[in-house]
TrEMBL record:
Keyword annotations from UniProtKB, A to Z: Carbohydrate metabolism, Glycosidase, Hydrolase, Polysaccharide degradation, Signal, Xylan degradation
InterPro entries noted in UniProt: A-glucoronidase_C_sf, GH, Glyco_hydro_67_aGlcAse, Glyco_hydro_67_aGlcAse_N, Glyco_hydro_67_C, Glyco_hydro_67_cat, Hex-like_dom2
Record's keyword annotation contains Signal: yes
Oligomer and partners: Homodimer.
Name assigned to this protein: Xylan alpha-1,2-glucuronidase
Catalytic reaction annotation: Hydrolysis of (1->2)-alpha-D-(4-O-methyl)glucuronosyl links in the main chain of hardwood xylans
Record has Phosphoprotein as a keyword: no
Similarity comment: Belongs to the glycosyl hydrolase 67 family.
Organism, as annotated: Dyella mobilis
First-level EC class: hydrolase
Entries under Pfam families matching the protein: Glyco_hydro_67C, Glyco_hydro_67M, Glyco_hydro_67N
Amino acid sequence: MRACIAFAVILLTMACAGWARAEDGYDLWLRYRPLPPAQMKLYGGRASQLVLAADTPTQRATRDELQRGLSGLLGRDIPLTQTVLHDGAIVVGTAASSPLIARLHWDTRNLGSEGYLIRSAVIDGHAATAIVGNSDIGALYGAFRFLRLLQTGQHIDRLDLHDAPHLTLRVLDHWDYLNGQVERGYAGASIWDWWKLPDWRDPRYTDYARANASIGINGSVLNDVAGGATILTPTYLQKVAALADVFRPYGIRVYLSIRFSAPIEIGGLKTADPLDPQVRAWWRAKADEIYRLIPDFGGFLVKANSEGQPGPADYGRTHADGANVLADALAPHGGVVMWRAFVYSQANPEDRAKQAYDAFKPLDGQFRANVLVQVKNGPIDFQPREPFHPLFGAMPKTPLMMEFEITKEYLGFATHLVYLGPVYEEVLSSDTMTHGKGSTVAKVIDGSLEGHRLTGMAGDANIGTDRDWCGSDFNQANWYVFGRLAWNPSQSSRTIAEEWVRMTFSNDDAFVKPVVDMMMGSREAAVDYMTPLGLVHLMGPGHHYGPAPWDASEAEADWRPVYYHRADKQGIGFDRTRSGSDAAAQYAPPVAAQFSDIQQTPERFLLYFHHVPWDYRMRSGQTLWYELVAHYAQGVEDVKRMRETWRGLHGYVDEQRYQQTASFLAIQEKEAQWWRDACIAYFQSISGQPLPPGYAPPEHSLKYYQSLSFPYVPGFSSW
Ligand code: GCV
């Protein structure tokens, strides 16, 4: 009897605490768990039957998703019918696929080929909801939006909304190798099982496609930019074609990273010179071969003449020469080239931050119409914070696409909770001033500023074979926010965080608000405990794990942290004004003037642009040294607060996801403390300044931090 009472008490406690079944994160934001009864009742009458054709693969995918989503959320099956029988019908499709929709005569011209509208309407005398696109894909996107309305607890009566993507190419770049390793991957191995493809098509590929389609991602570059040429051999192209088949119903095209020297390596030619007629013919034949297998193949992504990769400069040719030979091969089939501007060379003594601009700006206007130049968000390399890349707005005749890093190479790998929405938003909303005030980076990449129709955004994926796909539940938010911003780069990252939290965890406001606040503050916390006040690249050599501001072990100067912070007895920071490398001058004059003037430079970029004396007075009235220490300490305090926030939310989510997040936050606090202590110990050894009163000394000696070594860091090995 006592046991029974105890059991009942446990059950009651779990019910009161909102206990939920353990979840492993596999479902991502497409969880479709039963809604609270009141909401279910409210929605029930408005979702009673599904009217849609299921004649094409995309229509079938749309039907399956709506049935899966609605039955999960509403707790009952929704019948599929051909006509509207009663109130609550959901009519989905295009004017071409649905006579009911054709009869509505709605103007859908502003939706383009991927947009949708969702409207409450009376159809055949019954209250209904119509989800309409100009294409099946548009209707599929609309279906996902409709499900999101339910998942996030919004009303679904009197609907009249429409949306269409602002960018043409919304692409994930996978840094996956054919041997299963993922460069900078912290979520397991590559999800592409190349060995078993094309015969075995893992169901996970379909779930990957569903997740991407739900946020509007329409392209996937399957392999690493530094991979070999094997992917272009007939055997591997069969495998690529199998993936393309799985993705096609979801509107996702496949792209491949190519190795510029492929004509030599797998083509048997003596050269890969882009102006050589045999090389040109080889690429044309290769493109023809690919399109025979994959008629909607997207195109090529290229990393050339950077970090050891071959490229046109090996033959004295320009990046435009290199891109154009590929573009010419792809053009007859409608393919594009995404040519990366992440180009620097150790042979070039110029400040690394300047090299991409120097190499590409003079080529503006020389690329074929089907080439996009893919530019990382900042001039260095996905640091916790960098100013926007000076190429944005500087190449008006060339479509520039954005490259963001979703995998947290420089931001604590899988375990640190760092929501990247604010990183992306900060860059996208930066004003380049290249065409007057309001020339934001978002307007450069959506084409509106310079009149480009071919536009795009790429995200270096954080996806692997881990059950939760991304190495942690909160890392899923970074995949999500990337997709949502690629759809519309002017959205607010806070709004996106909120919808993600509601779909991924809970609609309970008592949970949503603190979690969104925690996510929004998480990036600034990481900047503070890693690289405050404009510092960059202080991470461990090569693997980029943990602090190593002292490190000068790398063979190449611009891979060494000491290259970036330049701390000496007098001060710290990289002088990028006229008295230094003058990288600031690469920005439009008003921005260059701001960054060149220490008084006007925002303090968050201070040490990126200036070498500043330790006793320099900051806006707070404190010295730079004091502020540096204060920021490092603040970062740790912020993580402590994040832990407290999460502790207070026990019971709102299932135990499995709660516990993993709690444990990862504990790791984050430990590592934030390590960052703080190691950096303060090192910079103090250079500045010779006493620790400001009230700040605890580092836990260990500088020697101790310098002695740590990490031979088996994930995401980095001998590929
Ligand atoms: C794919 C940085 C990363 C590399 C990455 C490179 C790139 O250097 O550390 O792992 O390689 O950027 O974007 O090409």
